[in-house]
Design brief:
The chain is mainly beta. It is built from 2 helices and 38 strands. Helices cover 2% and strands 44% of the residues.
């Protein structure tokens, strides 16, 4: 099989075409940008159609599945017992292979719609790493043997946390925040020791004190890696700005101002253009990658005013951004100019058309799912075309995972494997 060289931005340095198509190693896939390899993904399914398997989950959860080889991993909280878990399932039939449980009885604030263990796992085929927030970061091998753990301290915010770990070369990155303590940390993949830390100015916990509302500010962003002109860069969306770091040393390379104080989405990237979007009816902006220091005056391409509540991240493909906003309205935006090309409300069978999930592109098709479990398949093109609407009838706030022709969907009740073969 022909081997292609993929720059280090792909979580691993060298991977075969088959490895990309067969695995979904972290939140939003191999590149962290919602792009799936392979062409044979189903476009039509339902509760009794093109379902390879479905298994019950013990409780609700917002984290997304990740896939490597013959295994599927998800995180799971058992709230009444104070447990935070990593579950491993057999990819072929959904059978539970192993479960690793961490007890954490201390009170940790979160929003009622954001249960514990919202961060997705990440794997490189040897390690599986999970962030359980205040309960710590844990690294296992693929058979569930614990390799190391780190206590990074208390993570406290009124809306909880969600940022997932990322693997690059021999490092694991985690955006620890939001809250009073906000930092980006790089851990040694071998033993979990700190390689570098970047402290970012955060806000308070958002919790009201003495009758005064807390300061609502923070980032729930999972960082991505991009191929900068001088080498690979680690990209983060923070309150009010986008920042690129040297991934090995943690040095800030450049930043661009223009976001609002609350950021839920991760940045997206294609061919030298970055698009970052704020949440809570936040701003959006396009940035030309590169430069040194504050590049707002020289590299910012456009900004859009406060218009949408964006929680799930979009995809950038063919020079256009596609995103399903929290209100159930999908948009297509020119990446270079910031102009909205089309805007359409996606209506499914369920009563809740809102969406927290991130969009995925596979071949020339866009996949998005709303909170009612209605999944939409659209043409990835600057002309709106809805190809299919598929209903599972179960609440979900997770993002779909794509691997080897199968689509994995985590709902509040179940883990589904959708496949047309």
């Amino acid at each position: 099989m022909q081997t292609i060289v993929v720059r280090c931005v792909a979580v691993f340095i060298f991977l075969t075409v088959a490895s990309f198509a067969e695995n979904w190693p972290g939140w939003r896939g191999p590149l962290g940008t919602g792009k799936a390899e392979g062409k044979d993904y189903p476009t039509s399914w339902g509760r009794d159609k093109n379902v390879r398997w479905r298994i019950d989950l013990p409780e609700r959860g917002n984290s997304s599945p990740v896939v490597w080889g013959d295994k599927v991993f998800i995180t799971q909280a058992i709230e009444a017992k104070g447990e935070r878990q990593l579950l491993c399932f057999q990819r072929e039939n959904g059978r539970l292979l192993w479960r690793k449980t961490v007890k954490f009885d201390s009170k940790e604030p979160t929003h009622r719609t954001n249960p514990y263990c919202s961060a997705s796992p990440v794997t490189d085929g040897k390690h599986v790493i999970v962030s359980h927030a205040s309960a710590g970061v844990f690294c296992y091998d693929l058979d569930g043997k614990e390799l190391w753990r780190r206590d990074l301290g208390k993570q406290e915010h009124i809306w909880g946390n969600a940022a997932s770990p990322v693997i690059y070369q021999n490092l694991c990155y985690l955006n620890f925040g939001p809250g009073k303590r906000t930092f980006l940390i790089a851990l040694n993949l071998k033993d979990g020791k700190t390689v570098w830390v970047h402290d970012e100015a955060g806000g308070d916990s958002g919790i009201a004190e003495n009758g005064q509302r807390g300061k609502w500010v923070g980032s729930w962003t999972t960082p991505i890696l991009i191929d900068g002109k001088q080498g690979d860069e680690l990209l983060m969306s923070y309150p009010n700005r986008v920042v690129a770091f040297d991934p090995l040393k943690g040095k800030e390379i450049w930043s661009c101002r223009g976001l609002n104080p609350l950021v839920y989405t991760s940045p997206i990237y294609e061919n030298g253009i970055i698009v970052a979007m704020g949440g809570y009816r936040g701003t959006a902006m396009g940035v030309r990658a590169g430069g040194q220091g504050d590049v707002t005056a020289t590299h910012q391409l456009w900004t859009r005013p406060r218009e949408k509540q964006r929680i799930g991240s979009g995809v950038l493909v063919g020079g256009h951004v596609y995103i399903l906003n929290e209100d159930g309205v999908a948009q297509c935006i020119e990446a270079r100019r910031g102009k909205v090309v089309w805007e359409e409300r996606l209506r499914g069978e369920g009563g809740n058309g809102k969406s927290w999930s991130s969009m995925v592109v596979a071949n020339d098709k866009l996949y998005a799912i709303n909170q009612s479990g209605d999944a939409f398949v659209l043409r990835s093109a600057p002309k709106f075309e809805l190809l299919a609407t598929n209903a599972l009838g179960e609440m979900t706030q997770s993002s779909m995972a794509f691997a080897g022709g199968d689509i994995f969907v985590r709902t509040y009740k179940s883990l589904w494997c959708i496949g047309s073969k």
